[in-house]
UniProtKB/TrEMBL annotation:
Protein's GO biological process: transmembrane transport
Protein name listed in UniProt: Solute carrier family 25 (Thiamine pyrophosphate transporter), member 19
Main localization (coarse): mitochondrion
GO-annotated cellular components: mitochondrial inner membrane
Family affiliation: Belongs to the mitochondrial carrier (TC 2.A.29) family.
Gene name of the record: MPUL0C02720
SUPFAM superfamilies: Mitochondrial carrier
Cell location: Mitochondrion inner membrane
UniProt KW Transit peptide keyword: no
Organismal lineage: Eukaryota, Fungi, Dikarya, Ascomycota, Saccharomycotina
Pfam families the record matches: Mito_carr
Length: 255
């Protein structure tokens, strides 16, 4: 983990000079596995947990507001998805942090982690990560709902429909969630590279050594990656749900 204050463009130039063009794709294979599994488990668990929680409220004769439900269900969704995919996240970070033109083998890296630390080695940094993602997922679905409500209000006033509203709301939600939880993301990556340590102590040491601003180093690059992904994911999710409902309604009308 670099602490020399190198900016984004300078970092890219140094990376290309010292490690070559392939360095920009370090960790891409475990990252692909992470994104596919995370996306699948995120939306599947969200739908299942949301249905279960609604049923639980009906059985116990109580209810919570929609925003509260989104915070709770979103947090639970993030917890499950993160825990399932965390070894891929750690492996990606280890491969990216290796400063050499010679790329690390995924197989050899897995063997090395297991030999040094056992199974727990694949979960270094999982505690701040779970806290970060539970907060991030809850805030994401909460802010997405608020953005959708605002968009619907604009639609009513303008007597039309905003184009790409799902993508725009997903973008806003992605930026909001990332901004709130990014400091925990920084601690997670440090723990992954440094092979553990206490998250609370690392947080204090990082604050004393580098200050608040350092917790947001790399935030711009992270948002450039995360926000469009959130926009596309929510647009596809909403479109898929709408299409399946339309198909179901069409099939029922023919019966």
């Amino acid at each position: 983990m670099r602490e020399d204050g190198l900016k984004g463009t300078g970092l890219v130039k140094e990376l290309l000079r010292n490690e070559g063009i392939r360095a920009l794709w370090k960790g891409n294979v475990p990252a692909e596995g992470l994104y596919i599994l995370y996306g699948a488990s995120q939306f599947t668990s969200f739908t299942m947990i949301n249905k279960w929680f609604l049923h639980f409220q009906d059985q116990n004769h109580f209810s919570v507001s929609q925003l509260t439900q989104l915070l709770l269900v979103g947090g639970a969704t993030g917890f499950i998805s993160t825990f399932v995919t965390y070894p891929f996240d750690l492996l990606r970070t280890r491969l990216v942090a290796h400063e050499s033109r010679n790329l690390l083998s995924i197989k050899d890296t897995c063997k090395s982690i297991h030999a040094l630390d056992g199974i727990k080695g694949f979960f270094f940094g999982v505690h701040p990560t779970l806290l970060s993602v539970v907060m991030s997922s809850g805030v994401f679905f909460w802010s997405y709902s608020l953005a959708r409500d605002a968009a619907e209000e604009i639609n009513k006033r303008s007597h039309g429909k905003l184009w790409g509203v799902e993508a725009m709301c997903g973008f806003v939600a992605g930026v909001t969630a990332k901004a709130i939880t990014f400091p925990l993301d920084t601690i997670r990556k440090r723990m992954q590279v440094l092979r553990g340590g206490r998250a609370s102590q690392m947080l204090i040491d990082h604050w004393r050594s580098y200050g608040l601003a350092n917790f947001y180093r790399g935030f711009g690059v992270s948002v450039i990656k995360t926000a469009p992904t959130s926009a596309i994911s929510m647009a596809i999710y909403e479109y898929s749900i709408s299409s399946m409902r339309a198909m179901k309604g069409s099939a029922e009308s023919r019966l």
